[in-house]
Amino acid sequence: MSTASVANQLEASRPAMNPWVIAPVVAMAAFMEVLDTTIANVALPHIAGSLASTIDQSTWVLTSYLVANAIVLPLNGFFSAAFGRKRYFMACMALFTISSLLCGLAPNFGVLIVCRILQGLGGGGLQPGAQAILRDIFPPEKIGAAMATYGIVVVVAPVLGPLLGGFITDNFTWRWCFLINVPIGIVTLFFLSLLLQDNPGHRRIKLSETKIDYLGLGLLAVGLASLQIMLDRGEDADWFASPLIRTLAVLAVVGLSAALWWEWRHKHPIVNFRMLKDVKNFGFATVGMFMFGSILYGSTTLLPLLAQRMFGYDARQAGMVLAPGGIVVFCLMPLVGFLIPRVATRWLISFGVMWNVIALYMMSRLSLHADFNSLALCRVVQGLGLAFLFVPFNTAAFAFVPKQKLADASGIINLARNIGGSVGISLSVSFVKQVSQAHQNYLVGTVTNLNAAYRSNLHALTGAFMHGGMALTAATRAAQAQIYNMVSREAHMLAYVDAFRVGAIIFLLVLPIAAVLKTPSFKSVPAVVE
What we know:
Layout: H1 3-13, H2 19-35, H3 44-50, H4 55-58, H5 60-72, H6 76-83, H7 85-105, H8 109-123, H9 126-137, H10 143-171, H11 176-179, H12 181-195, H13 214-233, H14 243-265, H15 275-278, H16 282-311, H17 315-339, H18 345-364, H19 372-398, H20 406-444, H21 452-467, H22 472-507, H23 510-516
Helix pairs in contact: 2-9, 2-10, 2-12, 5-8, 5-13, 6-7, 6-20, 7-8, 7-9, 7-12, 9-10, 9-20, 10-17, 10-19, 13-14, 16-17, 16-19, 16-20, 16-22, 16-23, 17-19, 18-19, 18-22, 18-23, 20-22, 21-22
């Protein structure tokens, strides 16, 4: 192909309208989808009470959405090619909006779960679709800014979700956690119909002339659904002590392994996993995004849990602990977008990794005497690091991806981040539970009459209870119970500290990935600093 024809094709692929007019609309669609992964978390007790279900059953409101979401994510490339980028993206937005309305009006728990599945299916196309569109409509020298826009969506929305959900639930009703999507979805659909266009340079496939890879689709759906349910329900079911979890684990391993093998060999795979090997940077960046998702969602889960269980914060106060970090990410993303074309990717990622390690180390130094400012400061430092990770990883991942494969790539890398988040949440919560039991067993062994500190505290507490009017026997039992509670709290605190410390060590493994990433070239900007 001649240079002139390539230039003409690139010119034809550019949107007729300024990309910055399209970007906010596309980003809003993805923002609403990411927001819905966390907005209902704090409303689960209210949903359970309103629809006559148990708290344990109510968690299926989250699980059903995540499972449907995970199944659709990697299929973005196929559906975009089959139906067209604009038509598929708008269909996903319409399904997401309609199902949000149905969720808010659900008369019983069963209907709510079905509607959440539909919402997850619609939302699954919004994240990768938005990312692919932003990557497609911006010229190479503006890709950093485009990924910064998407980064704000992905990093800030999960933090804002519990805050907004708590406010809505406390002041209105849990139903508005879903109904709030309806007017925003209608407005977004209107502007999408006006602004979004299909890229004439993209290859379209005809379903009537294409033999759909149903086996690959089935294996992928079974594997991803089993994995997501196992990760989401494993802690409540005591992991592999449960026959259900063991069955899901087998289905996940067999389904995903078979799907990867089949899709890798298939001539026309429904998910092009060969990109992980064939496209420069993409495989390593996908692994990096998996680890990024693990640390982001794992720490975002543990820090509010620590605030609630150890310090007695309510849901709103725990959410406020995360808010300053979200503000830092929001403010720094434009700076990172500016630096992307000017500083080598590996240095930006290494900078972000080190700040995350510092933040996790700070969290590992927390004690039962920590105040709100100490918790918020840890999150602020982590936000500084997160801002320098998401954008460089995505820019490096997509730098060498051909335009016709952007949708495939976006689906795969978003799936990696989401699965990484599920793994991070499940393993971190399970780690705290198991390690706290180990710490408690050790600490209880020191609470004996042979320990002078124990005898002194028991005597002082018994005297205090007796001074309050208790008899000697009752006062002694009350003192022992209080000491046990102190030991239990200390054991749980030590478990959280260990979890943050392990997270810091694991996150250092991202540095070798950063070292092997190739820095993309950009036009119309100063030379990249190596």
